[in-house]
Amino acid sequence: MIRPKKHLGQHFLHDENIARKIIAAIPREPRLVLEIGPGTGVLSKYLLEDDAFDPWFIEVDRESAEYLPAKFPAISQRLIQADFLKYPLASFPGEGRSLEPMTILGNFPYNISSQILFKAVEHRQRVHAIVGMFQKEVAERITKPPGSKSYGILSVIMQAFYDTEYLFTVNESVFIPPPKVKSAVIRFTRNTRKNIGCDETFFFRLVKTAFNQRRKTLHNAIKPLTADIRDEASLPFLRSRAEQLSVDDFILLSREIIERQA
Description:
Elements: E1 12-13, H1 16-24, E2 32-36, H2 44-49, E3 54-59, H3 62-71, E4 79-81, E5 102-107, H4 113-122, E6 127-135, H5 136-143, H6 153-161, E7 162-170, E8 175-176, E9 183-190, H7 200-212, H8 218-221, H9 223-226, H10 247-261
Helix pairs in contact: 4-6, 7-10
């Protein structure tokens, strides 16, 4: 049996204690859990052993997709060989279950971890929780409150729809091969916000535009979005910088701009 090689920027976790801590962090509900990039199965085996979960696995790497069923036969009927970012999550895991809530789990490849989160947000009606390993710097950025220098685009977008928790830091030595940075496990739990009461595409665009020039005040940073508003100076928060605005502030500003453009 050939052990999978490092793939797509992924570093394989080999510490059993860390694996058990991650599994223990998964909410008991919903039962449906989708692990992204199981690799060598260090999380998968504990997921399979816990009767509280209905586990499924998605793996893009061919070597890992061949290794996993050979090592853990119970995975064979629950393994999807596909790219999560391209997989039609709306129909997972099959007919009659497309509306069932789920948790997403993973030691996420660092180079696509943000894309995984953006896809989860798109499917937030189903994705009720996320438990994952991230680069420590990214984990801190996501979970920081307004006013922090680390607070940014992912912070606002994820906190708009999820309660975010920084659970624990993970050292480089628990991976093969060891990454050059520390890692961290964070948990997202769907909050009570059903919608933001305005065009979400514009909201996302506003947040990204504001933080792309975060050293500038919003008056200058979001000029491309407010150029056709006559009373632009009366918009709220224009003297602030992006990192000073809460999620609710960004939502309010989005609504104000949209209303004045109508």
